[in-house]
Design goal:
single chain, 247 residues, Rossmann fold, 2 domains, 6-stranded mixed beta sheet, 4-stranded antiparallel beta sheet, 25% strand
């Protein structure tokens, strides 16, 4: 569904992406791992057209979005939703209005239908009766759930998850990962997730890819990825597993 071909991106003198080639399987949950500062979030932003490559191509099905502008790019973006690290909730809106926002903004539902749609989605993510709460009243895990509900309510074909468990304790991080996996099975969207949660991501991902030195150095189905003998892959997995144990 999403294909990157030779994508390069620099910020000033810092070259972040150095020729990324990557194919995201349709309908699967693909997780991108790698050391901090390698450009994983930058990669996600290219997939949705928030950034344009200096060189290379970004294809969504048969459309190279790196060549699109304005309305044409926005039309492709309608197929996407994105869950940010912070959940990016509107502080001035309660939970209900945060989830309803894209429905109203994009005219995806009649106003009379919005309560049913929003309450149904809040129930799916485990937030029954929380619509009246403000973001300041929510725990970190609850904010992530609201962000997920807002992403799902649009019925997207593709959801991008940028470190969805950042700032959560290990138990809550596992809960959010399990919820993402559950919703993926229910709705069947194509998912791309950036995460550093080793080894948890192997249990929820269909595919895993590793970004290092600006390139994808390995990609395989989750179970096979864990058997890869590349020294850089083995080192990253072992170091992060040790950090989990120490916590």
């Amino acid at each position: 569904m999403i294909t990157l071909k030779g994508v390069e991106k620099s910020f000033g003198k810092q070259q972040v992406l150095q020729g990324v080639d990557l194919k995201i399987p349709t309908g699967k949950l693909t997780t991108i791992i790698g050391p901090s500062g390698e450009g994983k979030s930058v990669l996600l932003k290219h997939m949705i057209g928030l950034l344009k490559p200096d060189r290379g191509e970004v294809w969504v099905d048969d459309i190279d979005i790196s060549q699109l502008k304005d309305r044409a790019l926005n039309d492709v973006r309608k197929r996407f939703a994105m869950l940010f690290q912070s959940a990016a909730l509107f502080d001035s809106m309660n939970v209900f209005d945060n989830v309803a926002f894209p429905l109203r903004e994009k005219g995806l539902a009649l106003e009379s239908d919005i309560p049913r749609v929003v309450e149904g989605m809040l129930e799916r993510v485990g937030l029954v009766g929380a619509g009246h709460k403000n973001p300041s009243e929510l725990s970190g895990g609850m904010k992530k759930r609201v962000g997920l509900a807002r992403a799902l309510v649009m019925g997207p074909e593709i959801i991008l998850f940028d470190e969805p468990t950042t700032g959560l304790d290990p138990l809550m991080a596992k809960t959010i990962h399990d919820l993402i996996r559950s919703m993926h099975r229910v709705f069947g969207f194509t998912a791309v997730m950036v995460s550093h949660q080793i080894p948890e991501i192997f249990g929820i991902s269909d595919w895993v890819a590793m970004l290092k030195h600006g390139k994808i150095i390995a990609m395989a189905p989750s179970k096979e990825f864990q058997k890869i003998e590349d020294p850089a892959v083995r080192e990253f997995i072992s170091v992060n597993e040790e950090n989990i144990v120490q916590v």
